[in-house]
Amino acid sequence: MKTISIICQKGGVGKTTAVVNLSTIFSKKGYRTLIIDLDPQGNVSTYLNFDKNTKNVTSSIDLLSGVTEIFTGELSENLSIIPSNKEIARYNDEKIIGGAKISKLKKYGLFNEFDFVFIDTPPTMSSLVQEGIAASDYYLIPTKPEFLAIEGVAQAMSFAKTTLKNIPNVNAIFLGVLLNQVETRRASYEEFLSELEYLLGDRLFKTKISHLTEIADSPFYGKTVIDFNKESKARIQFNKLAEEIIERVDKNEEIT
Ligand SMILES: Nc1ncnc2c1ncn2[C@@H]1O[C@H](COP(=O)(O)OP(=O)(O)OP(=O)(O)O)[C@@H](O)[C@H]1O
Ligand SMILES: [Mg+2]
Predict the structure, then answer these.
(1) All domains of the chain, ordered by start, with CATH?
(2) 217 lines ligand 1 (CB under 6 A)
């Protein structure tokens, strides 16, 4: 089982979009996939039309309160969810140092029935994000191609590093930075890209996600990229990204 958290303190960079589309693709590939929503906004549930207040489903607040068993919500074949709800907001405090409660549950084998777990996190540097990082084998940082985003990426990387240094027995690996909402025609794009390539080297994903109206509209229609036709740019790009993630994870497993 591999856990990947999607983090960035900047809002609106595509964390939830990445979680929703990647987890759907992974589930269609036959991987038993779980989404854990650690964001009080609960956007994953809204996006996928899942009622966050469904009874008898374990929520992420239950995970933080310590449970010994989980009852996931079923979204589709091979795709399950542990939704968040507003109550979790009290953990979204930048002053509380996040523990590693979810990481402990993982060590007890609570998520073992899954092949991949994707964790959505809020746009903060809070204990909730620390919980996500601590519970992960990998973390991925999405960003928009904007000048100030370089600083945002550096801040997210340093937050993850500090988190991992301060919590014992956790060791998530930096999977990479995903450029999302790319508009190649923008004059500043090439310059931005070369700067990011210089800073990140092979930690910048080769696959980039374009700014596409079909993606922007998809939460409204409750669609993910697999609902688009096979030739759609959004579907092709997210499929490629999924392949690149699997490749990176496999390569890393070989080394370690
Ligand atoms: N590649 C894209 N093309 C067009 N629109 C996009 C793309 N990626 C994301 N969006 C849109 O941008 C908005 C923000 O995306 P998303 O909610 O995934 O970001 P987020 O990082 O999870 O935000 P938050 O920090 O608030 O949780 C959404 O309306 C989404 O549909
Ligand atoms: Mg989000």
Answers:
(1) 2-255 (3.40.50.300)
(2) no
17 lines ligand 1 (CB under 6 A): yes
**pTM more than 0.90:** yes
Ligand 1 contact via 124 beta carbon (within 6 Å):
no
State the pLDDT at residue 147. Answer: 84
pLDDT tens sequence across 16-34: 999 999 999 999 999 999 9
For residue range 40-93, list pLDDT tens digits in order. Answer: 999 999 999 999 888 899 999 999 988 999 999 999 999 999 999 878 887 777
Protein residue with least CA distance to atom 8, ligand 1:
14
CA 74 to ligand 1 center in whole angstroms: 24
Q: Write the DSSP string, 100-151.
A: -HHHHHHHTTTTTT-SEEEEE--SSSSHHHHHHHHT-SEEEEEE-S-TTHHH
Residue 129 sits at the vertex; the CA angle it makes with 122 and 253, to the nearest 5 degrees, is: 120
Tokens of 200: 């990140």
Tokens, residue 54: 């469904």
The pLDDT tens digits of the residues spanning 72-84 come to: 999 999 999 999 9
Residue 243 CB neighbours (<10 A): 13
